[in-house]
């Protein structure tokens, strides 16, 4: 293991120019075709602000049918406002976002935007500590809060102290983990179909919460604030031989209190249903910001308020894969449109700022669109990373030396990325810098920044903390 200086990986880069007489902002952009043939790998993104025409299509979620329902009330739900997604011109950028004051404690952060707290580490990195992971963990994410580090796997988790000392390990069901640093808890779906809260100090269970449909559903998003629990779930494939693909999804909101009515304490916890919303779709993606869900299903994006009331529905023609939402409520959608994958930026008024086609040669996206503080959107596939600005111009595309495990965007607009056996960053011009080389070991998780600027990530067998502080 060693630090390594700057290098130039295999990288492809195209700049999309405005039409003659156009300006970088305020006019629709057009793609200038390259001269001569290009290898397929150079066609990762081909961005146009107008993109393909949209149709108002029938299907899941269209206003007037009974696709949306309340399970608890056994009643149909209708959107308060229905908007057709349309291409718009005269794009105006929005101001840079403020840096968050605390590190993310969920895999993708608020709004699924993958923003990291702090700037890119300067100088060579050194191993602060490394710790062995339990056999068969299959790490997917590293989460951190306070004095705890949690490595989340497919069906297991491992808990460590901030210096890498092992604390506990356990099993989990299909779904994500959610840290609650203010209560020193982690919420984890378990195999009995409930949600278990365990102590981040020692991994001991504190209480269970029953969820609708139990083990038949995968818990895609979990949030707990001010005693209110929000969970987004999708139906699982329980019998692969049944020949019926699961299509149901569910949003539910519950109040959580203990027997004394004093909030969540160790002991028995009472749950009170507040609201729910369910529907049917082959594809489902969601993001949660300030207690409000935005979710995408086949041919529709929807937003619900804190009580699961369906406030807005945006109709289009697409099959969603991933969704992110920025602080202005703009939606970044990765979706399959006809036979190709595209990145859309959709405003709250239904205006589609751009549609960025992604070449099939780049592969399928592996994460929600990363949204920088300056609102550059980053797309990750297993083999590529690419950046698109607010107006739909391709800033750069890059093919790292190994398979992409994940990335996050720093406060100084660098993409901190783990690929193959390297941790590196890509600057706003698309130049790659290697921060640390793990040699033959492949990184398996997106990098996470701690409050003091260390980087946490995991390989198949070990958890690593990297720091700029030289070893003693």
Describe the structure.
- This protein is mostly beta strands and 472 residues long.
- It has a single domain, classed as 7 Propeller (Methylamine Dehydrogenase, Chain H).
- Helices cover 0% and strands 43% of the residues.
- The protein is built from no helices and 37 strands.
- The protein has strands at residues 11-12, 69-70, 75-76, 81-84, 86-87, 126-132, 139-145, 148-153, 156-161, 166-171, 178-180, 185-189, 194-199, 205-210, 217-225, 228-235, 248-258, 269-280, 284-289, 292-297, 300-304, 310-315, 319-325, 331-337, 340-346, 351-358, 370-371, 377-380, 385-388, 394-398, 404-409, 415-419, 422-426, 432-437, 448-449, 455-458, 462-467.
- Strand 23 (319-325) and strand 24 form a beta hairpin.
How would you sum up this structure in a few lines?
The protein has no helices and 37 strands. Helix content is 0%, strand content 43%.
Task: Report the uncertain regions.
Answer: 1-43, 46-65
Tell me how many strands there are.
37
- Write down the domain tally: 1
The helix fraction, in percent, is: under 10%
Radius of gyration: 22 Å
* Main sheet: strands, sense, barrel: 5 strands, antiparallel
**Structure classification:** mainly beta
The CATH class designation is: Mainly Beta
CATH architectural grouping: 7 Propeller
The proportion of residues in beta strands is 35-45%
CATH topology title: Methylamine Dehydrogenase, Chain H
Total helices: the number is 0
- According to CATH, the homologous superfamily is YVTN repeat-like/Quinoprotein amine dehydrogenase
N-to-C CA distance: 17 Å
Trace the largest sheet across and list its strands: 1-30-29-28-27
Shape: globular
């Amino acid at each position: 293991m060693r630090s390594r200086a700057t290098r130039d990986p295999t990288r492809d880069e195209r700049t999309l120019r405005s039409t003659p007489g156009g300006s970088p902002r305020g006019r629709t952009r057009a793609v200038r075709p390259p001269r001569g043939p290009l290898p397929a790998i150079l066609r990762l993104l081909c961005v146009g602000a107008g993109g393909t025409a949209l149709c108002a299509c029938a299907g899941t979620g269209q206003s007037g049918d009974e696709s949306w329902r309340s399970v608890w009330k056994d009643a149909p739900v209708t959107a308060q406002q229905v908007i057709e997604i349309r291409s718009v011109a005269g794009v105006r950028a929005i101001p840079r976002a403020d840096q968050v004051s605390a590190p993310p404690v969920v895999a993708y952060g608020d709004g699924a935007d993958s923003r990291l707290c702090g700037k890119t580490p300067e100088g060579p990195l050194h191993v602060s500590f490394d710790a062995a992971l339990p056999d068969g963990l299959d790490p997917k994410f590293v989460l951190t809060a306070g004095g705890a580090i949690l490595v989340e796997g497919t069906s297991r988790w491992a808990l460590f102290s901030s210096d890498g000392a092992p604390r506990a390990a356990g099993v989990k069901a299909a779904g994500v983990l959610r840290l609650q640093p203010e209560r020193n808890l982690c919420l984890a779906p378990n195999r009995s179909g409930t949600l278990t809260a365990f102590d981040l100090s020692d991994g001991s269970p504190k209480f269970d919460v029953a969820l609708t449909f139990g083990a038949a559903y995968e818990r895609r998003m979990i949030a707990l604030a001010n005693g209110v629990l929000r969970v987004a779930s999708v139906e699982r494939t329980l019998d692969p031989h049944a020949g019926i693909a699961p299509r149901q999804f569910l949003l539910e909101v519950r109040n959580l209190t203990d027997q004394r009515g004093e909030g969540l304490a160790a002991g028995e916890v009472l749950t009170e249903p507040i609201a729910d919303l369910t529907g049917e779709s082959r594809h489902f993606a969601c993001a949660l910001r300030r207690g409000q869900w935005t979710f995408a299903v086949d041919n529709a994006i929807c937003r619900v308020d804190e009580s699961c009331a369906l406030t807005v529905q945006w109709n289009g023609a697409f099959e969603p894969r991933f969704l992110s939402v920025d602080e202005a409520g703009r939606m970044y959608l990765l979706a399959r449109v006809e036979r190709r994958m595209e990145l859309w930026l959709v405003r709250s008024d239904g205006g589609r700022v751009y549609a960025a086609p992604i070449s099939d040669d780049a592969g399928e996206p592996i994460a929600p669109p990363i949204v920088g503080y300056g609102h550059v959107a980053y797309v990750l596939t297993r083999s590529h990373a690419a950046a698109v600005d607010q107006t739909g111009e391709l800033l750069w595309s890059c093919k790292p030396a190994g398979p992409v495990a994940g990335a996050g965007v720093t406060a100084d607009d660098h993409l901190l990325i783990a690929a193959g056996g390297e941790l590196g960053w890509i600057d706003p011009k698309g130049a790659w810098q290697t921060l640390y080389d793990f040699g033959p070991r492949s990184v398996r998780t997106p990098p996470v920044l701690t409050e003091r600027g260390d980087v946490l990530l995991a390989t198949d067998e070990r958890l690593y903390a990297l720091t700029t502080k030289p070893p003693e």
